Structures are given as structure tokens and as C-alpha cells.
UniProtKB/TrEMBL annotation:
UniProt domain HTH iclR-type: residue ranges: 6-68
Keyword Chaperone: no
UniProt-listed Gene3D superfamilies: 3.30.450.40, Winged helix-like DNA-binding domain superfamily/Winged helix DNA-binding domain
GO BP terms in the entry: negative regulation of DNA-templated transcription
Domain IclR-ED: from-to ranges: 69-249
Name listed for the protein in its UniProt record: IclR family transcriptional regulator
One Pfam short name: IclR_C
Length: 249
């Protein structure tokens, strides 16, 4: 741990570096002990990192970990590092074996953030790293909602606006869809997020069953029916497990 800084910016970066050293998470009390800062200072710095997305807080364990914004930043300033560098070869293999575009997304607030995308040989994806998509209309977002421990509260917060005539906009219908997603272990959507596109997504889970990300295959409707894509979920699930093994806990 570097020497303590004298200003708030330096202290914030020191706290961010500390989070990087404790991949399993650290409490505010332990962070204060290691840095030598008063508990109130450590708590304030960690809270600021959580608010900005550079840290995550688990209300159950009371532990702080690095947030997904760290990886999003890496996408912007060093495209070959972070999640891209750790997982893109797996997505390439998935796209080669299926012939369709593959997309890895993580949850960022009330949206799905694309972090890695590999175009299919005959069709370009409709999303790029750094793009956001609604949780209720995309298969990736529906996976995130289905595995949300506070699902109903999230649904109440969402703006369930339609992106296409097929989008789900009724909360009750969305809850029913999410129940089906949890039951099946995958989410499929046909022209609910983009006209002319089908997609199927599966969760990327850690060993404790917590959602790390969501992985999808997308294809234009004239190339693949939704049923065709659903038939590829075993390959999706295998790749998702390989991705989970590479992602930080």
C-alpha cells in the first residue's frame, strides 16, 4: 500500500488500488485500518467510488469490491485490456462455431452495458462496446433482471417504454417472462429490442451462483429463427462458464 495522500483525489485513488488488492472484497473498517484513515474518511471514499460505479457494495456481506466502471474505462482507453482482453478469444471461438454474432454485457444501473462484441461472418452486431441497452427489451437485460435478487424493485424503477411493437411494456407480463427465463436458464427475444433481430442470452455466473455478466448470440431473422438460436444455448452455456473462470470475483 502506497504512502497516504494529502488530498481527496489521491486518497480516492489509493482506496481504488486497495480494492484491487482485495479481489474478494474489503470492509470499510478494514480499509480504514490498512490506510490509516479515520473510518468516516474511508467510508466516504468508498461511498463515492460506489456512487460513480468504480466500486460495488454487497449489502449482505458489507464488503466493497471493484466496480464494472473500472472495466468500462479500460474499454475506452485500452481496448485490448480488461474484459476485452480476457474474454474476446472465447467470443471469437463461439462466433466461429455458431456463425453468429456474440455479445458480452454487464449490468450498469438500470441498463445492460456491452463490453465485448464479435461480429458474425455475414452480419454486424447492432451494439458496440460502451453501448447501453434497456433491461426489459434485450435478451441480455432480461437475463440480468431474472437473476436480480431485488427484481421487483428494479422493475418498478424501469421505464418500460417500447423499442419496437413487440417490446414488453407491462410489468406483469415482464415478471412472467422473467420467471420463464429463470426456469429455462436462458432468455430469448424476437424483434423486441431491434426490428429484424433475434437473440438468445445466458447468464455468466460465479461459483456461488451470482451473476457476473450475460452472454448472447444475435442474428437477423432471415438467417436464424429464435428456435434456431435457442438450439445453440449449450454452446453459449459452455462459453459462459469459460468466461466466468476468467472474470475477477
Amino acid at each position: 500500500m502506497p504512502a497516504k495522500g494529502s488530498n481527496s483525489v489521491t486518497k480516492t485513488f489509493e482506496m481504488l488500488e486497495l480494492l484491487g488488492e482485495f479481489s474478494d472484497g474489503i470492509s470499510a473498517a478494514r480499509a480504514a485500518e490498512i490506510t490509516g484513515y479515520p473510518f468516516s474518511t474511508a467510508y466516504r471514499l468508498l461511498g463515492g467510488l460506489v456512487e460513480s460505479g468504480y466500486a460495488s457494495f454487497d449489502a449482505h456481506s458489507k464488503l466493497y469490491t471493484l466496480g464494472i466502471e473500472v472495466f468500462r474505462l479500460s474499454q475506452k482507453v485500452a481496448h485490448r485490456r480488461g474484459l476485452d482482453g480476457a474474454t474476446k478469444d472465447l467470443l471469437r471461438e463461439l462466433t466461429v462455431s455458431t456463425g453468429e454474432s456474440s455479445i458480452l454485457s454487464v449490468r450498469r444501473g438500470d441498463a445492460a452495458l456491452t463490453v465485448v462484441a464479435v461480429d458474425g461472418p455475414q452480419f454486424r452486431t447492432t451494439t458496440d462496446p460502451g453501448d447501453y441497452s434497456p433491461l426489459h427489451t434485450s435478451s441480455l437485460g432480461q437475463i440480468m433482471l431474472a437473476y436480480d435478487s431485488d427484481r421487483d424493485a428494479s422493475i418498478e424503477r424501469l421505464d418500460l417504454s417500447a423499442r419496437t411493437p413487440r417490446s414488453i411494456t407491462d410489468p406483469g407480463q415482464l415478471r412472467q417472462r422473467l420467471d420463464e427465463v429463470r426456469s429455462h436458464g436462458w432468455a430469448g427475444q424476437s424483434e423486441e429490442n431491434d426490428i429484424g433481430m433475434n437473440a438468445v442470452a445466458v447468464p455468466v455466473l460465479d461459483l456461488d451462483g451470482r451473476l457476473l455478466a450475460a452472454l448472447a448470440l444475435a442474428a437477423p431473422v432471415f438467417r436464424r429463427s429464435l428456435e434456431d438460436l435457442v438450439a445453440l444455448t449449450p454452446e453459449l452455456t459452455t462459453t459462459a462458464a469459460a468466461i466466468a473462470a476468467r472474470l475477477p470475483r
